[in-house]
Amino acid sequence: MFILDLSYTAPLSRVDELLDAHVAWLNGQYEAGVFIASGRKEPREGGIILAVGDDRAEIERITATDPFSVHGVCAYRITEFFATKVAPGLAPYRQELPAR
Questions:
Q1: End-to-end CA distance of the chain
Q2: Which residue blocks in 9-83 are alpha helix, DSSP H?
Q3: Omega prior to 67 cis, within 30 of 0
Q4: Count of H helices and E strands in the chain?
Q5: For residue 8, what are the CA distances in angstroms to 29, 33, 72, 73?
Q6: Rounded distance, CA 50 to CA 37, Å?
Q7: Smaller CB count within 10 Å for the chain: N or C?
Q8: Torsion sign over Cα 5, 51, 1, 84
Q9: Which pLDDT band holds residue 30 (cuts at 50, 70, 90)?
Q10: pLDDT in tens, 88-100
Q11: Which of 5, 80, 90 is nearest to 39 (CA)?
C-alpha cells in the first residue's frame, strides 16, 4: 500500500484551473482499483491519496500522469507501507509482512 502526499507548488488559482482534470484522473484510478481513499489537506496545501499496488514503479508512473504533475502544480511524496492491521471494511487490503 502507498500513501501519496501531494504538496502544491503553484498558486491555488493555477491548481483550481486543473481541478476538473485532476478529479477525472482520480476517478479513473478508482475505477482501476488503484485508489481507495483521497482528499485535500487542511489547510489547503495539497492532498493525500491511499493507493494499493505491489509495484512502486507503477505507482510512480501513475502519479506522473496526474494533470497536477503534468502541469507542474504539485510534487508527490510516495511512502510505501505494509497494511498489516486494517478496519473490517478494508480487510481485502490487509497485507502480510514479506519473509525475511
A1: 19
A2: 12-17, 19-31, 56-64, 67-70
A3: no
A4: 4, 4
A5: 20, 25, 9, 6
A6: 5
A7: C
A8: positive
A9: very high
A10: 999 999 998 888 7
A11: 5
